[in-house]
Amino acid sequence: MPLLHAQRTDLAAAFRWAARLGMNESIANHFSLAVNDTGTRFLLNPVGSHFSRMRASELLVVDTEDISSYTGPNAPDPTAWTLHAALHQALPQARCILHTHMHSATVLCCLKDFEFLMLDQNACRFHGRIAYDRGYAGMALQADEGRRVAALMDAGKSVLFMGNHGVIVVGPTVAQAFDELYYLEKACALQVSALATGRELALIPDDVARLACSQWNDYPTRFSELHFNALKSILNHEEPDYRT
Fold it and tell me: How many domains does the chain contain in total?
């Protein structure tokens, strides 16, 4: 399979599974994947498309050096362009960018001064890798907003909690980014439920959380890839049109 088609297929699969898991919101939210070394060219969902019906061939290829690719009748959503164009170029770790308003993560984004808790094994995966944007100031329509957000995710951060908004997850591949998104929402859902009990939380000590994070990252199998391949196998059987 040619590389670009494989990249399109993977990103389309991520959209389909995000919808299956209820991570999408109307026709909002955006996923993208860089297709050149500098991040100036990337795949992005077209405006008005629904995650549950995304096909590989429908994804836009936008190019920061070609104004015709992000203007005119087939232009991407302006907030997607503002954020994703800046992040792809500024952050080496942001080959794939997934931005959602998924429920449990967004709940935590709406708690004043909230810090993600090392509460369970899944949470430990994100130890030391989360950045926070506390300054919600409306939709990302200003040209410098993408640069501001990118600066928050320097030093190799892979998750951004956007106050009163949602989350951004980045990764080197679609499989790795989607696996991160999946486990982030699982960990956030657990935290929301635990906080709702009003009981004292049994937090994992920092040194143990750091160890578990390194174990996640050095796991002896290709966990993220195997997970994503399993998801694509289900789609191949139940919704094969995502590949077209």
Answer: 1
